[in-house]
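Something for you to look into today, if you have time. I want to see for myself how the chain folds. Leave the record below and I will have a look.
***
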Amino acid sequence: GANQRLWFGADDGETKRNDPRCQSEDLGDNAMQASRYGIKNLKRILPNLDEWTKQDGGSYDDLTSMYKAVKDQYFRYMQHVMMNIGGIYITPKSQSDKGIVIEPAPIEKQKDAIAFFNSELFNTPYWILDQKITTLVSESPQPDFVQDLQVKALNKLLDIKKLNQLLASQHQFSTKAFPLDEYISAIHKGIWKELKQGNPNMDSYRRNLQKAYIGSEQNILLSTSADYTETDAFTMIKMDILQLQKEIALAIPRTKDKLTRFHLLDIQERIKKTLEANPVIE
């Protein structure tokens, strides 16, 4: 239609599965921007939850349920953004209508989705772990909510299905699609940004996340399934882990924090064993 503020998607499984514009509880035309605003609001709400749920002689049950609601909403924002990566826009048209029916989610939006994960999830969101609240509502599970969500999101980003989905989009849409090598590089730069520091230092969440990164790449490089090994995704992940190996070797001598240094030596050993199990063909 002529009204650019309206979009009507097809009510079918494929559209709901693949089109990031077709999500419940997702308003506006930019999930990243909307979710950033949403998180700003959650950051205002959380420190006040204890005060707002206080009752004379009451328990912390209300605070517990409100804290859960904040975590659930934060999780929902992550889901909305994830749909943009490898997403396909499906705009139903009749043969008399002009325009494209199927196209990839714009490259800039997909890049922004990765930037969003790097800033709002992978960069440890300590605000949602506010001790004033968490010490009143729960014990400390392992892994905690943030660690669990970080690892699940990263595993999804580096899952072979997601990588092959991006490759398929490249084959179908050529230069309109987000190139897979740029996609992997953008995730790499976010997860391993500390390696560029003069004295690399990662907190426990970042160390855990980086271990998960290696785990995701190992899943691909140590697989014997053709879905994994006989695709360009396999080759690009191999190149990425080789690049990481070089970056870690350069970073270790500059690393003064003992735990970070041990962590990098551990990662270095994991990469070495992965490559020995699947040697590079010279």
